[in-house]
């Protein structure tokens, strides 16, 4: 559950607008997740509406930084095994 983005932007009738919302998921969150983006808006008469403008499964992947702990352990293990043989 991420923080709501309050814009207060007026979009004229028959027009479109694009909004950007950035977030960084926690490290152990890699994998598929349901992502739902609800848009709350109000018309000129003061009527309030809510629409799900995005509702799909997305896959969060970890950024590849080169060497990780598992890779280093594998290299150390293989080096030690090579020295024993």
- State the distance separating the first and last CA atoms: 52 Å
Uncertain segments are none
Outline type: rod-shaped
Compute the number of strand runs. 2
Q: How many domains make up the coordinates?
A: 1
Mean pLDDT: 83
Please explain how this structure is put together.
It holds the Pfam family TRAP_alpha. It is a single-pass type I membrane protein. By secondary structure, this protein is an alpha+beta fold. The protein has one domain (1-85). It has 1 helix and 2 strands. A two-stranded antiparallel ribbon has the order 1-2.
State the gist of this model.
It is built from one helix and two strands, in the order E-E-H.
Annotation keywords:
2 strands, alpha+beta, 1 helix, 85 residues, rod-shaped
Map the helices and strands:
Layout: E1 31-42, E2 48-60, H1 69-84
Antiparallel strand pairs: 1-2
